[in-house]
Specification:
Thrombin, subunit H, mainly beta, 46 strands, six-stranded antiparallel β-sheet, globular, six-stranded mixed β-sheet, about 675 residues, single chain
């Protein structure tokens, strides 16, 4: 685990959670100790400088929300699920609605039976399982989505891929684009500064005379704050993913902790589609708005998939209001989702919807496909066949991950299917589909002891098999599924890398294991039978020391080897494993680059952070540091940070032999071969 000083931003939150120790029969996974472990795992980096950045505040708020939500579900809000007594997994039963009457009854019942009351008839209902719907296409119809580089078509971006010339967003699955704050189309850069009120469109060449071609100011509303979070760029279309927040005023929701009611800030998602045929004069052509806070987005071809989580609010009397999610197009009014597009888990007790829309960004006349299910989600994984969400729930003091799958169809979205496995996922890389099966890696806690498991589910999300009791006493720190293989990193004091054989969906097994100091928290294929690991070095006691890069040879899966490693000085850290889109792969250079910071103590005994952007060569199966680049001098950083602008390098990209590093108010250009600065632009 990380040193305590690296988790200072979570300590006040953990202190606030100490009273949870007084709650009788609290599940082990919700103990302050376990919460501390989860927070350190998810936010291992320190709070930069003397104050918390917006990113850290958001992370802490999100962590608290997750904890509150988990307790809410534990204290009487579990889903009605059919438990497989052999595996401990389950398949929740969904029901397609014909009108709004059942939804209305659902929320009336939810209002009348608060979270701390039991669900009548739960045990009786569990005795009569119904058949779960089947996701199409079936296992036999689905192509192999991914494989290890050099063996088949890889679903991940690799260092060796042929598509070179300019930097692209690091994504999980080939053919499934992901939004980011920086996009590069080979001639123009599109960047979202931290405040999210503008989009900078930059002409980066020639490097010595870069210029801003235009600046898009995000349209605001009188009673809502609108900020852009990420972008897509496709040809002459720029798609901005925006968040809308509105203080709810008198609306409240029941947090299910001691009957506490808290004001809720209702969120919405907005898609802005601009015509950028003239980069100097973007034109807004289309607006689409959807209820709920943004969970994630994906894009396949011209189709954008928008996933939000909508929390139904209550008035002062505890009555649920606005309990049907809505969407709107342009200036048109809000349209409720059709009842037939909403699914419900019988006797589920949650005020949350998952809302998914499939929007053709190239054809405004094409009807938007919309689906919703009463449930929640934390992580999103998307293949070329379906979209999945995963969230943690608690049932009888046992931690589970509930999965919803939304298959793609000619119309856009098919009816969802659902399932459940033991434990919690780390992130989206914990899920992967291959050959029609879904593989999911989780960490589970049984009687206070942790271990890991990989569960394989069929197309209807019914459990086929599970590989259990992997690395007792340790938690998952990184996962990568590649073809018929799975790679799992766990950690407590050393870093075991497990190689899994998933070719037989009925009988997964461990092929090999490698134990080394430290841990990798991100894995990426970088060539035939090679994996790059990015994480932290650690001593024999498990105390982290500095950033570590490892190259793993998995050509002999029974005996994986670390063929090379590079350890940076003590005190270095990086957000790259959790901010994986900040990792830049340079195929022609066979190199990788990402931001790295180091905490240093000045002569005045005040700490500051040396913010850098490092380029590493991966030539000849060896890791070497090529360049350490900076956008600001130390004095410039202090001045920028004192103005609240944050001097951190957020992203890097390249065009040809020029590397560009972007901070919130500056872009610098460097020679890839020499590291020499070629130009800079402040905006």
């Amino acid at each position: 685990m990380m040193k305590k000083k690296r988790n200072g931003q979570t300590e006040p939150l953990l202190e606030a959670l100490r009273p949870l120790d007084q709650i009788n029969s609290l599940p082990p996974s919700l103990s302050p100790t376990q919460i501390s472990s989860r927070l350190r795992l998810q936010t291992p980096q320190p709070a930069k400088r003397r104050g918390l950045t917006l990113r850290h505040v958001a992370a802490a708020a999100a962590a608290l929300a997750i904890v509150i939500g988990a307790i809410a579900l534990w204290k009487g809000l579990p889903y009605l699920e059919v438990v497989n007594r052999q595996t401990g997994d389950s398949a929740p039963l969904t029901e397609v609605l014909q009108d709004y009457s059942k939804i209305e009854s659902y929320f009336k019942d939810l209002s009348a039976h608060p979270a701390d009351e039991s669900i009548a008839g739960r045990e009786e209902a569990m005795k009569a399982p119904a058949e779960s719907p089947t996701m199409k296409p079936t296992m036999n119809d689905v192509p192999e989505d991914n494989a290890l580089a050099g063996q088949a078509t890889n679903n991940s971006a690799t260092v060796n891929e042929a598509d070179t010339g300019y930097g692209k967003t690091n994504i999980q699955t080939a053919g499934v684009e992901e939004a980011d704050i920086l996009k590069n189309d080979g001639s123009t850069l599109y960047f979202v500064p931290a405040l999210g009120k503008t989009i900078q469109i930059i002409a980066p060449r020639p490097a010595g005379s870069m210029k801003v071609l235009s600046q898009i100011s995000i349209p605001q509303e009188s009673n809502k704050e609108v900020t852009v979070s990420e972008l897509y760029v496709q040809g002459n279309r720029l798609i901005a993913i925006c968040r809308l927040t509105t203080p709810s005023g008198s609306k409240v929701y029941n947090a299910a902790i001691c009957g506490l009611r808290m004001p809720v800030y209702q969120g919405e998602a907005r898609i802005l589609i601009y015509n950028i045929g003239d980069r100097s004069a973007p034109k807004l052509e289309r607006t689409y708005t959807q209820d709920g806070g943004i969970l994630s987005t994906r894009m396949i071809g011209s189709t954008l998939y928008l996933i939000t989580q909508y929390t139904v609010t209550q008035d002062e009397n505890g009555t649920f209001i606005d309990y049907i999610p809505t969407t709107s197009e342009g200036e048109g009014g809000a349209k409720k989702l059709n009842a037939a597009d909403i699914q419900i888990l019988p006797d589920a007790k949650t005020p949350n919807y998952l809302v998914v829309s499939a929007l053709d960004t190239a054809d405004a006349k094409k009807t938007v496909s919309r689906q919703a299910v009463l449930g929640s989600g934390n992580e999103v994984y998307c293949s070329t066949q379906a979209l999945y969400t995963a969230s943690t729930v608690y049932d009888d003091d046992v931690e589970y991950t509930t999965i919803f799958g939304f298959p793609f169809s000619q119309e856009g979205l098919g009816k969802s299917v659902s399932g459940r496995v033991r434990g919690h996922v780390l992130n989206q890389f914990s899920l992967d589909s291959y050959g029609g099966a879904l593989r999911i890696a989780t960490t589970e806690t049984v009687n206070g002891s942790t271990s890991s498991r990989v569960t394989i589910l069929d197309s209807s999300l019914k459990t086929l098999s599970a590989l259990t009791n992997i690395a007792p006493g340790e938690e998952i720190y990184a996962v990568r599924f590649l073809g018929t293989k799975g790679y799992v990193v766990t950690f407590r004091q050393t870093d075991p890398l497990f190689v899994l054989d998933l070719s037989d969906t009925s009988s997964p097994k461990i092929l090999g294991e490698l134990k080394i100091p430290g841990f990798s928290s991100y894995l990426h294929p970088v060539g035939e039978n090679l994996l790059l690991g990015i994480g932290q070095d650690a001593d024999e006691n498990g105390t982290t020391r500095g950033v570590k890069l490892s190259l793993f040879d998995v050509s002999h899966p029974e005996k994986p080897q670390e063929v090379d490693s590079l350890i940076l000085p003590n005190g270095t850290f990086t957000d790259a494993p959790s901010e994986y889109k900040s990792i830049l792969f340079l195929p022609e250079e066979n190199a990788v680059a990402f931001p790295i910071a180091r905490e240093e103590i000045g002569k005045d005994f005040r700490s500051y952070f040396d913010e850098t952007y490092c380029v590493f060569s991966l030539q000849d199966r060896q890791i070497s540091l090529l360049h350490t680049l900076r956008n600001y001098t130390k004095q410039e950083r202090l001045a920028v940070d004192s103005n609240g602008l944050d001097s951190s390098i957020r992203r890097g990209t390249y065009i040809g032999d020029t590397l560009y590093t972007l901070s919130n108010s500056r872009i610098c250009a460097f020679s890839l071969s020499s590291g020499e600065e070629l130009g800079r632009l402040d905006f």
